[in-house]
């Protein structure tokens, strides 16, 4: 939805891109219309592109100018109101979101239909790269046939299904009943492939509706992709310890990395609340995650970073120290 000239102000920023030794540092310059807080509910077109778990670049010129713009929004107050509407805290908000509007949005993003916009397609690419990298980490250690794997926060089965196709015995869970139903549906379609029986040597993943705190048992490997974004660091430490207690040999985590640059982009995205943006998004410093693992006797063996224009994810593989 376009804003009238009275209701918007064009703001121009320039942000430095993250760089490494092999690429020249280039500025990222974008002009965006920043709606005042009173009209934030009108940005329906923007809100379908951006939600609080989607890091979006709308521009930057200087940290001071951006800070002034950020002061127009009050995301914490908005989140508190959203939590009150569903009668609880972060967990209840996440469950509600991914059973309703969030489920519809992320099913499209995780799927292969053309019913996605440019930003969503970019996030799809980033997430698929994360899954590919995790599968490579796992297969580097040998065949997965008969290996027990806990896919904690399985979503629509993007990782569970490839694991099952490699012969792994997968226990998959998600806080969203809608996500679990979709994951099981897709797993049956892909693993049975139109036949009455699953291929020999393969096992259909066991899908359950559970939050991370409710998970139990012991597994050769535990994988938790892009779920820590829903946990503040003080709760993430306890969750990492819990996930490590379920794993015998390997724990693989992916999370949104907390750096000055990515934190800035996240805060910019929060300027566009939208009616369906109902989850907090927490970034985590790699050092904090590593410290949490070390506290429970684990060490990081492999590291990876997946970046696209709108998707950023740090992957770590940890083993007992």
From TrEMBL:
InterPro entries in UniProt: Mg_prot_MeTrfase, Mg_prot_MeTrfase_C, SAM-dependent_MTases_sf
Alphabetized PROSITE patterns for the sequence: SAM_MT_MG_PIX
Domain Magnesium-protoporphyrin IX methyltransferase C-terminal: start-end pairs: 224-319
Family matches, as SUPFAM superfamilies: S-adenosyl-L-methionine-dependent methyltransferases
Pfam families noted in UniProt: Mg-por_mtran_C
Highest rank taxon of the organism: Eukaryota
NCBIfam families documented for this protein: BchM-ChlM
Record's protein name: Magnesium-protoporphyrin IX methyltransferase C-terminal domain-containing protein
Organism: Rehmannia glutinosa (Chinese foxglove)
């Amino acid at each position: 939805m376009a804003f009238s000239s009275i209701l918007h102000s064009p703001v121009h920023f320039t942000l430095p891109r993250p760089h490494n030794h092999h690429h020249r540092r280039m500025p990222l310059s974008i002009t965006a219309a920043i709606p005042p807080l009173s009209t934030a509910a009108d940005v329906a077109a923007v809100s379908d592109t951006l939600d609080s778990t989607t890091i979006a670049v709308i521009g930057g010129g200087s940290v001071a100018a951006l800070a002034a713009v950020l002061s127009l929004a009050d995301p914490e107050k908005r989140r508190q109101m959203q939590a009150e509407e569903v009668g609880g805290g972060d967990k209840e908000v996440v469950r509600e979101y991914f059973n309703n509007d969030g489920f519809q949005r992320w099913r499209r993003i995780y799927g292969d239909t053309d019913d996605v916009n440019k930003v969503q397609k970019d996030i799809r690419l980033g997430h698929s790269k994360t899954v590919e990298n995790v599968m490579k980490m796992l297969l580097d250690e040998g065949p997965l046939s008969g290996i027990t794997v806990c896919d904690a926060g399985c979503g629509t089965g993007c990782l569970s299904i490839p694991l099952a196709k490699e012969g792994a015995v997968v226990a998959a869970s998600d806080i969203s009943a809608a996500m679990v139903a979709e994951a099981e549906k897709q797993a049956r379609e892909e693993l049975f492939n139109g036949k009455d029986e699953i291929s020999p040597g393969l096992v259909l993943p066991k899908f359950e509706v559970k939050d991370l705190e409710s998970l139990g048992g012991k597994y050769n490997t535990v994988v938790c992709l892009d779920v820590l974004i829903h946990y503040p660091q003080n709760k993430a430490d306890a969750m990492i310890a819990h996930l490590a207690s379920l794993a015998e040999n390997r724990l693989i985590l992916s999370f949104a990395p907390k750096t000055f640059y990515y934190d800035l982009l996240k805060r910019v995205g929060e300027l566009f609340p939208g009616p369906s943006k109902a989850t907090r998004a927490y970034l985590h410093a790699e050092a904090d995650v590593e410290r949490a693992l070390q506290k429970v006797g684990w060490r990081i063996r492999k590291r990876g970073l997946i970046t696209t224009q709108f998707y950023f994810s740090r992957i770590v593989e940890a083993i007992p120290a």
